[in-house]
Design goal:
The complex is a heterodimer of chains A (158) and B (381).
Chain A lengths: L2 H12 L3 E5 L5 E6 L4 H10 L5 E10 L4 E10 L4 E10 L4 E3 L9 H11 L2 E3 L36
Parallel strand pairs in A: 2-5, 6-7
Antiparallel strand pairs in A: 1-2, 3-4, 4-5
Chain B lengths: L14 E5 L2 E6 L10 E6 L3 E8 L7 H6 L7 H5 L6 H16 L5 H29 L4 H22 L8 E2 L2 E2 L7 H24 L2 H7 L7 H7 L4 H5 L6 H4 L20 H24 L17 E9 L2 E9 L7 E5 L1 H15 L2 E2 L3 H7 L4 H5 L1
Antiparallel strand pairs in B: 1-2, 2-3, 3-4, 4-10, 5-6, 7-8, 8-9
The chains are: A alpha/beta (158), B alpha+beta (381).
């Protein structure tokens, strides 16, 4: 598969819903989609373009834009291309369908993102604390408004 | 009586009875075989129905800490993710930072990095093999051998970097120091000796009938499952997927060296153990080539303090498998967001999935777990 061809195919299929598609270096494909076509786009990328192995998922908090940018990183075992699939969700009410039915390997990463960024993955079977203590109620650490001061060591590091 | 004194049942009881002859067994976090985490095993005393890996006991918030440190300050928290494999882990972060700063390290630094990383891979694989043999309750002597065999490499790394581990040796733009006098000769002698040691380990352990009986056909991961679950590293290659970041996306000096990728098709615990032994041979081969073909020149270049706004994804083959570091920058001297996806995090998911697809016996659970070479500090970050 040629990366440029893949970009063309995506644009033909989803049109305006592809907000951004580029390949800044070899073996990389960055695709940003509107969040209402996320599941269809993911299915298309898996079935038609052959991206089959999930290697990461997560999110980035942008309080100024009032969005959380979610990403899923998928590798194609046939073509050796790494895809970074991105979409924005509303920061006040971050809800998105889970992609674990398409790529099973993202299940644990989505669980982690739910815990650390507070993104609700709808349809995810196992959203429970993973890295933080079971009784943690001090907010979402990876959000930008999470304050580190209460956790600073008395000797001033960090 | 205060609230604290009321006994509510200990959530960390080793064994919970669930009725119908079913038990929930908590292996860890203070179990000799568990490491710094907990395996929650659902069993009827013989068959394992479910394994849940409870990670997070050593979560340090590395990703958050990195947002509050400059690029070069981030080296210290990152390399402490896996103390036994610091060079490979650090390469992931340093490589991603170099990519976002837009700098290339000088060629000589690339070769020195390759040597340090491959020595680290040998150290880490030796430790993993020792733990696998211990968990198979087969022969603790192998653990003692492999621990002893790491020493010459640790000494060499001390000679080169000044520390036995957590060297902080790689920095954006190169490495901290050039190779000292006498290092090459000592390294070549060590490699000759170590190749004979690999033969001994292989003969005593890998070809051993007892070990084969214990591990062959156990914990099989098919090629399709390995891709589906996102298994990483030697475990992935033992299932027949030809993915090695060193080959598929060469970094450091790997693109200029000629080495073989170890793949097996069986996908069982035996293949995973054997793949590690063979990978040590490949590492010896890589180090020999790197030290012979090393170009002259500087080992470090100046790098800009600030990155341009943008993002970079760097994939690196650590000893436990492929790790990727995704950095988003907003133009400051600190990263805006760093996402680190370590190999053990993905391998733990495979450990959870295996009892759902095949029969696993309780006595085999430690072998199953250690054949993946898990590392909790890696997954916890």
């Amino acid at each position: 598969m040629n990366i440029q061809e893949a970009i063309e195919k995506l644009k033909n299929k989803f049109g305006e819903k592809i907000l951004e598609a580029s390949s800044p270096r070899d073996n990389r494909l960055y695709v940003k989609v509107s969040n209402d076509v996320l599941v269809e786009a993911a299915k298309y990328l898996r079935k038609e373009l052959g991206f089959d192995m999930a290697i990461s998922a997560g999110g980035t908090d942008y309080p100024k834009k009032n969005v959380i940018e979610l990403f899923w990183i998928i590798w194609s075992s046939n073509d050796n291309v790494t895809l970074i699939l991105k979409t924005d969700v509303d920061r006040e009410n971050p809800k998105i369908p889970t992609l674990r039915d398409i790529w099973l390997g993202v299940q644990k990463f989505e669980r982690e993102t739910w815990e650390l960024l507070g993104v609700e993955y709808e349809g995810h079977p196992n959203l429970k604390p993973l890295l933080l203590p079971e009784d943690w109620n001090e907010g979402y650490p990876l959000r930008k408004d999470f304050k580190l001061e209460p956790y600073r060591a008395p000797w001033g590091d960090g | 009586m205060s609230d604290m004194m009321v006994y509510r049942g200990n959530p960390f009881n080793e064994i919970e009875e669930l009725g119908d002859g079913m038990f929930r067994l908590h292996m860890g976090p203070q179990h000799p075989i568990s490491g710094q985490g907990r395996f929650i095993i659902l069993t009827d005393g013989e068959r394992v129905f479910d394994i849940e890996v409870d990670i997070g006991y050593s979560h340090r918030g590395t990703e958050k800490l990195l947002e509050h440190r400059t690029f070069i300050q981030g080296i210290v928290p990152v390399e402490r993710m896996v103390m036994i494999d610091t060079a490979n882990i650090l390469m992931g972060y340093v490589g991603a930072v170099e990519r976002i700063l837009g700098v290339e390290p000088p060629p000589r630094a690339n070769y020195i990095r390759t040597i340090v990383m491959e020595m680290n891979r040998i150290i880490s694989h030796l430790y993993a093999l020792g733990l696998l043999s211990e968990s198979a309750a087969w022969n603790p002597a192998v653990f003692l051998w492999t621990t002893a065999d790491r020493e010459p490499f640790l000494d060499l790394l001390e000679m080169l970097t000044g520390a036995r581990w957590s060297y902080s040796f790689f920095v954006p733009g190169g490495v901290r120091a050039d190779i000292p006098r006498g290092f090459k000769e000592r390294l070549l002698v060590t490699l000759d000796w170590f190749e004979k040691r690999i033969d001994v380990i292989e003969e005593a352990w890998i070809y051993n009938e007892l070990f084969r009986m214990r591990t062959e056909g156990m914990g099989v991961v098919s090629r399709q499952e390995a891709i589906e679950w996102g298994v990483a590293g030697p475990n992935l290659r033992a299932s027949g997927v030809a993915y090695d970041t060193r080959k598929n996306e060469p970094y450091a000096a790997y693109g200029e060296l000629d080495f073989k990728m170890v793949t097996h098709t069986a996908g069982d615990a035996y293949a995973r153990g054997w793949a590690r032994v063979e990978e040590m041979r490949v590492s010896v081969d890589i180090i020999r080539q790197a030290i012979e073909n090393m170009p002259d020149g500087p080992v470090r270049v100046r790098v800009p303090q600030r990155a341009k706004p943008g993002e970079a994804l760097f994939r690196v083959e650590t000893s436990r498998g492929e790790m990727n570091v995704y950095i988003v920058s907003d133009g400051k001297d600190k990263p805006y967001r760093v996402k680190i996806s370590p190999a053990s995090f993905r391998n733990f998911f495979a450990i959870e999935m295996i009892p759902k697809t095949q029969t696993v016996l309780l006595a085999d659970a430690p072998v199953l777990i250690y054949s993946f070479d898990p590392w909790f500090l890696d997954a916890d970050r």
